[in-house]
Structure formats: structure tokens, C-alpha cells
């Protein structure tokens, strides 16, 4: 009797004598799904850009919530002395039984000063602090309930009235490109015509390649994906950087109530793909690429930080060991000289 026949003989049989080929490990995805739904999900999104570009409005439009109820708007005189701050807002969202702990990290004051030299320092320091906290918790004794506050994605808002990337835009994205997934956006796209948006996108893509800026890259489709999914993925890649519009106001258009902005010449619909890329941005952030953003943060950006920490700790340990060894031999020489 061979090993294969011996294992087959132990398999349960049905009433008609036929073997049951079903073992049960095919239900593992269902088990993982139930466990994940029970535990819930967390996602940290950072928004950066100068004031007045609609960052808060866009976030509220994306997640259908109001994260800035008590926000105080500063006047022009107060903005002169304002420095870059880090403001964190956390909200629990539930949809069809799935719970999401959403953390929005805002950066008021960025790019508003006359001198914006190293205005991104507070942002990079905050991202490194979250890496450090996670590294300490991961290296501690209680690793069961680790809070993941690492920044998974940064939406960077580019003004629509420029002719491309400004020096502060280039320096900011290059400072963050190895720490977080950077997704550039063209803010307030309703200020531009479709042809102007197309030209600005082409200009931004050229400058991103020219200056070697590493933004978030969509993963390649698997060969077994259907043609419709491949078409949508190609369309998303060709739409970057996304031209977005945010609005929490409900207006009436063509007999339907939609979220949009009402102007004397017409209505701009936020969720109309012909008007802006809001739906595409929401698709990658929530429906298709949220898990990939978290994976890249954990497997790439955090691992690079963790490797640097371990190398630093190893060098420090070797230094102290070498120092102790030198002191030991120096002490022995002193003792021998005293004896003689």
C-alpha cells in the first residue's frame, strides 16, 4: 500500500461509498474575514497643503462625516505668526457591520508663511514619532494590543492656479517620499476647464519624473484579472494626479439631489466623473487600495525605519563593548604596574 492510497483510505466516505475530497481548509478566507470584521480596521490619513485649498471639505466628503466642527479660522494677521501644527482627529465609522477607526492628521499652517524654509520638518518628525512608538510597542512585552498610529497615506494638495510644482511642493514630497505613501491632488478643480486640467496633469507628471519624486504607485494587475478590472486600473493610473472637488452641500440637478457646488453658470457635481476625479480618489482610498497602502507602509516604509534603528543600536552596542574592552585592558595594565 502506497502512502497516497493509505491517506485516501482514511478520508471519510459518503453513503454511496465515494470518497469526500473536501477537507475544509477552503473556509480559511471566511475565518479570516470573520476575525477581521470582529476586530475592526484602522486607517490613518494625512492631508497637507496650504490653507484654503479645501482639505477639510474633501475629507468630510470622502467619509461622509464632519471632523472639524469646532475649527477656528484664522485671519490674515494671525497667519503671519502661525507655525506648522499637527492636529489629529479620530472618528469611528461603521458600514454594513464593518468598523473603521479613521484618523485624520491635518497640518494647519503649512505653506502659509512668507519664509517656508523646512516647513515640512514638523510633518516628518510626526511620522517618525509614530514609527518610533510602534517600534517600542513591538519590541515590548505586551504586543497583543498594539495601537497602529502610523500614517498610511498623505494627500498633498497642489494649488490649481499655478503653472506646475512650486519649490515648496517639490521639497515637501521629496522629504516624505521614503516615509509615507504620497498621493498628489489638484485642489479645487472647478477653477479650471477640462483642457486646462489635462494640461496641468501632464505638466505635473513631467515634473514629478524630472525631479525624481516617488509618489504612490498602483500595483500591477494579476494576469488572471478580468478585462473590466484591468480597464479600471489603467484608467486610475492615467488619472493621476487626481483633480478633486469637495462639497458637503446637497443641491438639485436634473431632478436629483446630489452633492455639489452651485454657481450662476451651472452646477458642479462632486461625484460626477465628468466633472472631477473625486470618485476615483475615493475608490483607491477606500474600495480597492486601502489594504495595499497599509501593506506598503508596514512592509516598506516602516521596515526601512526599523532596519535603521537596529543598525544604530548594533553600532552603539559594538562601540560600548569595544569601550569596555579597552577600559578592561587599561585597568589590568595599571594594576600590573602597581604590583611591580
Automatic annotation (TrEMBL):
Keywords: Cell cycle, Cell division, Cytoplasm, GTP-binding, Nucleotide-binding. The keyword Transmembrane does not apply. The record marks 161 as: Important for dimerization. Pfam families: Septin (PF00735). Residues 1-21 are annotated as: Disordered. Residues 39-312 form the Septin-type G domain. Its main location: cytoplasm. GO terms for molecular function: GTP binding. It is found in: Cytoplasm. InterPro entries: G_SEPTIN_dom, P-loop_NTPase, Septin. Belongs to the TRAFAC class TrmE-Era-EngA-EngB-Septin-like GTPase superfamily. Septin GTPase family. This is Septin 5b.
Amino acid at each position: 500500500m502506497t502512502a497516497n492510497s493509505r491517506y485516501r483510505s482514511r478520508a471519510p466516505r459518503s453513503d454511496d461509498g465515494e470518497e469526500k475530497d473536501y477537507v475544509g481548509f477552503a473556509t480559511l478566507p471566511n475565518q479570516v474575514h470573520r476575525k477581521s470584521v470582529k476586530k475592526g480596521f484602522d486607517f490613518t490619513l494625512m492631508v497637507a497643503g496650504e490653507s484654503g485649498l479645501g482639505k477639510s471639505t474633501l475629507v468630510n466628503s470622502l467619509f461622509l462625516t464632519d471632523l472639524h466642527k469646532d475649527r477656528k479660522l484664522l485671519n490674515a494677521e494671525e497667519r503671519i505668526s502661525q507655525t506648522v501644527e499637527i492636529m489629529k482627529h479620530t472618528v469611528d465609522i461603521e458600514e454594513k457591520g464593518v468598523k473603521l477607526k479613521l484618523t485624520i492628521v491635518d497640518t494647519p499652517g503649512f505653506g502659509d508663511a512668507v519664509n517656508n524654509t523646512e516647513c515640512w520638518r514638523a510633518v516628518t518628525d510626526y511620522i517618525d514619532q509614530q514609527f518610533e512608538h510602534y517600534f517600542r510597542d513591538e519590541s515590548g512585552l505586551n504586543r497583543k494590543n498594539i495601537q497602529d498610529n502610523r500614517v498610511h497615506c498623505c494627500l498633498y494638495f497642489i494649488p490649481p492656479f499655478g503653472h506646475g510644482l512650486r519649490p515648496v511642493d517639490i521639497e515637501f514630497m521629496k522629504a516624505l517620499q521614503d516615509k509615507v505613501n504620497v498621493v498628489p491632488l489638484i485642489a479645487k478643480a472647478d477653477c479650471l476647464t477640462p483642457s486646462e486640467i489635462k494640461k496641468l496633469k501632464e505638466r505635473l507628471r513631467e515634473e514629478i519624473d524630472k525631479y525624481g519624486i516617488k509618489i504612490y504607485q498602483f500595483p500591477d494587475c494579476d494576469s488572471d484579472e478580468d478585462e473590466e478590472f484591468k480597464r479600471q486600473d489603467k484608467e486610475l493610473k492615467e488619472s493621476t494626479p487626481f483633480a478633486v472637488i469637495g462639497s458637503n452641500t446637497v443641491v438639485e440637478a436634473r431632478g436629483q439631489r446630489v452633492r455639489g457646488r452651485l454657481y450662476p453658470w451651472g452646477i458642479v457635481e462632486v461625484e460626477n466623473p465628468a466633472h472631477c476625479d473625486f470618485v476615483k480618489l475615493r475608490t483607491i482610498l477606500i474600495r480597492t487600495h486601502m489594504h495595499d497602502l497599509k501593506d506598503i507602509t508596514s512592509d516598506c516604509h516602516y521596515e526601512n525605519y526599523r532596519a535603521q534603528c537596529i543598525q544604530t543600536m548594533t553600532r552603539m552596542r559594538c562601540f560600548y563593548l569595544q569601550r569596555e574592552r579597552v577600559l578592561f585592558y587599561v585597568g589590568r595594565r595599571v594594576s600590573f604596574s602597581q604590583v611591580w
